[in-house]
Design a protein that fits this description.
By secondary structure, this protein is an all-alpha fold. The longest helix has 26 residues, at about 50-75. It contains 5 helices and no strands. It has a single domain (about 5-95), classed as Orthogonal Bundle (Tetracycline Repressor, domain 2), CATH 1.10.357. Helix 1 packs across helix 2 (about 30-35) and helix 4 (about 50-75) packs antiparallel against helix 5 (about 80-95). It has helices spanning about 5-25, 30-35, 40-45, 50-75, 80-95. The two termini are about 25 Å apart. Keywords: DNA-binding, Transcription, Transcription regulation. This is Helix-turn-helix transcriptional regulator. Pfam families: TetR_N.
Amino acid sequence: MRVDALRNREAILAAARRTFEEQAVLTSLDGIAARAGVGNETLYRHFPTRDDLLSAVMAANLKNLLGTASDLLESLDAREALKEWLFMLTWQLHLA
């Protein structure tokens, strides 16, 4: 993937994540494109459907969440780390 295409994809994902958190998942995709600083065509080239975009956001969120598990274990005891991780997971699923 070209550097500019990757940058656009990441901008769309970041804008979608923030917008979904603020306005729910049925928000305007055109608004997400504008927030990302890209045109509608760019958004739809990367994510042809709302489900594609939502799936990509959820996958990125879960990947980040999996990465936090070891950080939590370093700063909390195992029980507290698990509780915090499950809370974070539940919040991510709630956003879907």
